[in-house]
Structures are given as structure tokens and as C-alpha cells.
Design brief:
Blueprint: H1 5-25, H2 30-41, H3 52-73, H4 76-81, H5 83-107, H6 112-123, H7 127-136, H8 143-166, H9 178-211, H10 216-236, H11 241-253, H12 258-282, H13 289-317, H14 322-332, H15 337-348, H16 354-376, H17 378-385, H18 387-405, E1 412-415, H19 419-430, E2 435-439, H20 442-450, E3 455-457, H21 463-468, E4 476-479, H22 484-497, E5 503-507, H23 513-518, E6 523-526, H24 527-542, H25 547-559, H26 572-576, E7 586-591, H27 603-606, E8 614-620, E9 623-626, E10 639-644, H28 646-657
Parallel strand pairs: 1-2, 1-4, 2-3, 4-5, 5-6
Antiparallel strand pairs: 7-10, 8-9, 8-10
Helix pairs in contact: 1-2, 2-12, 3-11, 3-12, 3-15, 5-6, 5-8, 5-13, 6-8, 6-15, 7-8, 7-16, 8-9, 8-14, 8-15, 9-11, 10-11, 13-14, 13-16, 14-17, 15-16, 17-18, 24-25
Length: about 650
């Protein structure tokens, strides 16, 4: 069946929408849905899109933007902070996996370049899948979560030399040697240093000049020019487009415009990642499955078992207990998107036999299908496989916390000992109030212990850790980490065992304010709200507003839990951030006409607070009355400005026009 270019896009959109809805209803990662779409519509499925050359071009385009987004999120400071895990654990994992796999591949008769590339494919795990699922499970900052992130960071870095090797001309690696591998690594390192230097000293002036025009279109054009320009340069050097895109992301990540670029590219990121996974799924020849299912199954078992055992052993070698080591192995015992990227380019360059590539591709796809289950149930699997070790691991942490809090009573528990937690601790010390803090940053905890601070390593979202810290006899609990998901988890668990302890929660903004309060927070302190209060109070002081009036106003705002500050006019960014099916609060203006029921009734009689809707302004003749008192009687000709969600505002308008039923 013949389709035009537009027809192919329509087919992809229609099938992607259907499969995406199905996978979300089944609570499965969308990545698996995109892979399934590729299998269905590809030349080896129903052949609705059967242009294999066009498919390869789309795949390369997807890889370009995949590596650009990863490069944009790559953090050199984070790499430095985690150097022991990244360089030690991650380095050993990648090099040993690659070396062992390459030796086995050479023994089985693959050419040297194919064996080395295959080793790189096996070494990779899915950064996108692991980070997303660990974040959803609130395990990203646990011990096994930090180990997984460190290994993934090193894997991401090592994609560069593997892409360099894949981009070598056919036959150029017949006499492969250690010197060639080292040269490839040095070439990638030199490219990194050069382009990062250009990014630091060349891109800043360019983007500052563009930013002065305050044009979103110009800014996006500049981002695309830099990205595709860097990709073209590396391609002309005999390397790959994808490598240039990754380096372009790295360049932009080193500028002060990184967050703006992220905000602008966010709407395209998931679409481009989906495009990449769809094109990878298209490469799977399902018609060969009856012939190759046995080697696929064997390779799948070898891949998962080998990576699981190797990563577990390396974690044990680095000093982690068996439970943490096994959980790290379970999280990473699968193939990844970078493996697909390397494999697809290698197949295009004919570095691997087509049949071997299909076997590898199928095994990788199935391993990624298993990955969400392995990650989701990694804790339960460890408790089943190593119950004694898992119990001992938790018991050691619990005893350490119990020992530190043994003599404390009516103390304060601080969850998170970053900058905010440490500032809180200083105030408590000045008032001679005992406290104990928990944190999951091992370096921070080690430094705190050296400084004789009452800080212990532990996950505050763990009920046993909270009990060991004395939450049942504590005077208060402070959640100072900037993570609403973890805060909600802690709140719900603390309220199960202590429903009277005051709990103060730090939050970045008011997006989850109501949810945190409903979960049991005594007070929530949104940083943006407090910043607004401080600026407003300083402004009013500058304008000679009496201090007594100023303090009263600040108390009223905090007493009302920042209700006054919630009435924010939504901009484009706020509206774009609303999840599907959600709604953003907004302002409506309603003028009272003749015959409306509200005429002659007070604001309090309307009962709008039950909806909930707030009257923010009453415009009467030429007078603008902000926050009118509840006993204000309305009359024809008044204009009310109401604040609430669209559905609540519609109900409020019906009430204003006629008496509520």
C-alpha cells in the first residue's frame, strides 16, 4: 500500500494515540508503547510504512534529538560530586561489560569492530526509563537509586566514544588495537573540551544578544541552528550527527540559558523521544521470530543475568551490602535507548550481520519490556531472595539512627540536611533545642559527622527510620528537602503513628499546597510565597507603611495559608504546565444586571466560598474595592472579579443570576 509523507505521519499519530492510551490505562511506560507502534506500522509488521530507507533517516533524526536533550540535562558538577560512584562503579561496569562481551563475540566469530560495538550495546541501560520510574517510586535518592544514577551517568558519557567507533568507515577497523580505542576516547575527550570551551566563551555572547530581543522565535531558531550546526560539523569530520547534537546540548547546558532552553524544548522532547522509539520498533523483523526465538531467549537470559550479577558484584566490591547491591543490579539489568542508538547505527554501517542484529534488537526490546517490572518490584524481589540480608541492612541503619536519638525527648526531626535543613539546625542550636537530621547524601552525612552534627544516613520516607529517630516522642518534624512527592510520602506515614506532632513542610511553590495540607502538614512554606511576602513587606516599609499594619497584614496572609497570594493571573507557562484533564485557576469578571438574584444580597449570603470561589475585587462606580468584606451588600451595576477554577466560576455565575437550589 502506498502512502504519501503526510499519510505516514497520520498513520503514526493515529496508532501512537491508540497504543499510548492503552499503555497508560495498563500503567505501563509510554516508551514500550512507542516500541509497539513501531513494530505494528513498520515494514516487518503490517507494513503501513514500508520505506526502510526513510525509516532509517527518521531513526537518525530521533537519535540526534535524543542525544541533544540528554546533553542538555548533563551536569558536570553532578558528575564531580558523584565521582566515586560514576568513575569507580560506572567505569568498572562499562569497561568490564564491554570487554567480556567483546571477547565472547570474538570467540563466536564476529569481526573485531562488531564485537566491540556489541559490548557497548550490552553495557548500556535505559537512562530515560530508570530515572523516570525511580522518580515516580520516590527511590531516586536512595542508596540503590544513587548507585544507578552514577552508573547511568558514566554510560551516557561513554556513548561518545562508541559513536565515534560506529562512525568509522567500513573496513577502517580491521586491525583494531588498544591504540585505536584510546585514540577514539581521546578524540571524544578533545571534542568535548573544545566544544565546551566554545560554549562557555562563544555561546554566551550569542545568546545574550538574542535574548535582548525577547523573541521566542529567534531564541528557538538559535537553539536549532547551534544544534544542527554542531551535528553537521561532526558529520563532516567523519563522525555522527548524533555526537554533534549531544555536544550541542552540553554546550547549552554550560550557559545561563540552560533552563530557558529546557523550557522551550520541553514540548518537543517527548515527541522526539517517541519518534526515536517508534523507528527502533520498526527495525524489529517479527517475521523472523519463529526462526530466531531460541537464540533470542538465550541472549535475553544471558544479558539480564550477566548484567545483574556483574553490577551486584561491583557494588559489593565498592562496599555496599548485598541488599543494596542486588537492588542496583535489578534496576539496571536491561538494555537501553543508547544501546538501540549504537546498534541501529552499527546495522546501518554493516558492522554486524543482519541476523545477529535482529537477535540483539529483539533481546533488547524484551529486556526493556521487563525493566519496568524489575524496577518497580526491586525491593520486594530482594526481600524474597535475601530476606536476612535485607533485614540486616535496614536494621543497621535503624540502629545507627536509634543510637543517635536515644537520649532525645521533645526534640526536632529534620528530614533533609541541605542548605535549608542546616539553617534550621543553627536556629535550634541557638535555642538549645535538640534535633536529629536524616539525609541520603553519603558525602554530606560523612562531613556532618566529622563536624559532630547529629546527622544520620537514612531515608526519612522509611517508617522504621522515622520510628528510630523518635517520631513518636518528638516535639516537631521539619521536611526541608525540596521534593513534594517525598514530602507526601513522609506525611502519610508519620500521620499513621503520630497524628498530633506538628509537621512543617518546605515546598518550591504552591502547586501542591492543598495536597500537602490534606496529607497532614501543619504548615507548608512555599518558597515563592515567602519571597513574595518578604519583597512586599520591604516595599511597604520603604513606602512608610506603619510597622503594626505591616505585621498584621503578614500574619493575616500566613494565617490564611497564603490564600491572598494564590490569586495569580495565569501566564502561558502556567497554563502549559497544567496536566491533561486539569484546570488552572483564573479570574472572571461579572457585571450585575437588572433582575439578578444577587442584587440586594451580601457577599456572605452568596456562599461562594463553598465552591470554592473568591471575590477579589468589587468595582462600584469609579471605586475599586479589593477584597471586599463579606457583609458588603451588592447592587445592580456592580462589577465583581471572581477567582477560581472554570467549573467553579460557572456555578458561581449561576448563583449570582438566580437563587441556589
Amino acid at each position: 500500500m502506498e502512502y504519501g509523507y503526510v499519510d505516514e505521519i497520520l498513520v503514526l499519530l493515529a496508532v501512537s494515540l491508540s497504543v499510548g492510551v492503552l499503555f497508560l490505562r495498563l500503567n505501563l511506560p509510554p516508551i514500550l508503547g512507542y516500541l509497539a507502534v513501531g513494530v505494528v506500522v513498520g515494514p516487518y509488521g503490517f507494513a503501513w510504512i514500508d520505506d526502510t530507507e526513510h525509516t532509517r533517516e527518521l531513526a537518525e533524526f530521533g537519535v540526534v534529538f535524543l542525544l541533544f536533550t540528554i546533553g542538555l540535562e548533563f551536569s558536570l558538577p553532578q558528575l564531580i560530586r558523584m565521582k566515586r560512584i560514576v568513575l569507580g562503579l560506572g567505569g568498572l561496569q562499562v569497561f568490564l561489560t564491554t570487554a567480556i562481551t567483546a571477547m565472547v563475540a570474538l570467540y563466536l566469530g564476529l569481526p573485531p569492530e562488531g564485537a566491540l560495538v556489541l559490548g557497548g550495546v550490552i553495557a548500556m541501560s535505559s537512562t530515560a526509563l530508570v530515572i523516570r520510574q525511580l522518580t515516580d517510586q520516590v527511590e531516586l535518592h536512595t542508596r540503590h537509586g544513587r548507585n544507578a544514577v552514577g552508573i547511568l551517568l558514566f554510560q551516557d558519557v561513554m556513548v561518545i566514544p562508541f559513536l565515534i567507533l560506529v562512525s568509522q568507515p567500513a573496513g577502517a577497523m580491521d586491525g583494531i588495537s588498544l591504540s585505536l580505542v584510546v585514540a577514539a576516547l581521546l578524540k571524544g575527550l578533545a571534542a568535548l573540551v573544545l566544544i565546551l570551551a566554545l560554549g562557555r566563551w562563544g555561546l554566551r555572547p550569542l545568546f545574550r544578544a538574542i535574548a535582548r530581543y525577547r523573541s521566542t522565535e529567534l531564541f528557538m531558531l538559535t537553539v536549532l541552528l547551534v544544534t544542527l550546526g554542531a551535528a553537521t560539523i561532526t558529520h563532516e569530520m567523519g563522525l555522527s550527527f548524533a555526537l554533534g547534537a549531544f555536544l550541542a546540548g552540553m554546550m547549552l547546558s554550560e550557559t545561563e540559558f540552560r533552563h530557558e532552553v529546557e523550557a522551550e524544548i520541553r514540548p518537543f522532547r517527548d515527541l522526539l523521544l517517541g519518534l526515536f522509539f517508534i523507528t527502533i520498533g520498526m527495525l524489529l523483523n517479527v517475521r523472523l521470530l519463529p526462526e530466531i526465538w531460541l537464540p533470542v531467549l538465550a541472549l535475553l537470559l544471558v544479558l539480564v543475568s550477566f548484567k545483574l550479577l556483574l553490577i551486584t558484584a561491583l557494588c559489593r566490591l565498592m562496599g555496599w551490602d548485598s541488599a543494596v547491591a542486588l537492588r542496583t543490579g535489578l534496576v539496571l539489568a536491561h538494555g537501553g535507548e543508547f544501546g538501540f542508538a549504537i546498534l541501529s547505527l552499527a546495522l546501518g554501517a554493516e558492522m554486524l550481520p543482519a541476523e545477529a542484529g535482529q537477535i540483539m534488537l529483539t533481546a533488547l526490546l524484551i529486556s526493556m519490556g521487563m525493566a519496568p517490572l524489575l524496577i518497580r518490584y526491586n525491593g520486594r524481589l530482594v526481600w524474597r531472595l535475601l530476606p536476612a540480608t535485607a533485614t540486616m541492612s535496614q536494621q543497621v541503619l535503624k540502629e545507627q539512627v536509634s543510637e543517635s536519638s536515644r537520649d532525645m525527648n521533645n526534640h526536632v526531626i529534620i528530614c533533609g540536611f541541605g542548605r535549608v535543613g542546616q539553617n534550621i539546625a543553627r536556629f535550634l542550636e541557638d535555642e538549645k533545642i535538640d534535633f536529629i537530621a536524616t539525609d541520603l547524601d553519603p558525602v554530606l552525612v560523612q562531613n556532618a559527622i566529622k563536624a559532630k552534627e547529629p546527622v544520620v544516613y537514612g531515608d526519612a520516607a522509611n517508617m522504621e527510620i522515622l520510628k528510630a529517630a523518635g517520631v513518636e516522642r518528638a516535639a516537631a518534624l521539619v521536611i526541608s528537602m525540596n521534593d513534594d512527592a517525598t514530602a507526601l510520602k513522609i506525611l502519610r506515614r508519620v500521620r499513621m503513628i503520630n497524628d498530633t506532632i506538628p509537621i512543617l513542610v518546605r515546598s518550591r511553590d504552591d502547586a501542591n499546597l492543598r495536597q500537602l495540607q490534606e496529607a497532614g502538614a501543619t504548615e507548608v512554606v512555599p518558597e515563592t510565597m515567602e519571597a513574595s511576602l518578604m519583597l512586599s513587606s520591604l516595599l511597604l516599609m520603604t513606602l512608610k507603611v506603619p510597622m503594626s499594619r505591616l505585621f498584621f497584614k503578614m500574619r493575616q496572609v500566613r494565617k490564611g495559608r497564603y490564600a491572598l497570594l494564590h490569586r495569580v493571573l495565569p501566564g502561558e507557562e502556567a497554563i502549559a504546565a497544567v496536566p491533561a484533564g486539569g484546570s488552572v485557576e483564573e479570574h472572571w469578571t461579572i457585571e450585575l444586571d437588572d433582575g439578578m438574584w444577587a442584587d440586594g444580597h451580601s457577599i456572605a449570603e452568596l456562599g461562594l466560598e463553598k465552591l470554592p470561589v473568591t471575590v477579589t475585587v468589587l468595582q462600584r462606580d469609579e471605586n475599586r474595592i479589593p477584597n471586599p468584606p463579606p457583609d458588603t451588600v451588592l447592587r445592580t451595576g456592580d462589577t465583581l472579579v471572581l477567582f477560581g477554577t472554570p467549573s467553579a466560576l460557572e456555578r458561581a455565575e449561576r448563583i449570582l443570576r438566580r437563587a441556589p437550589e
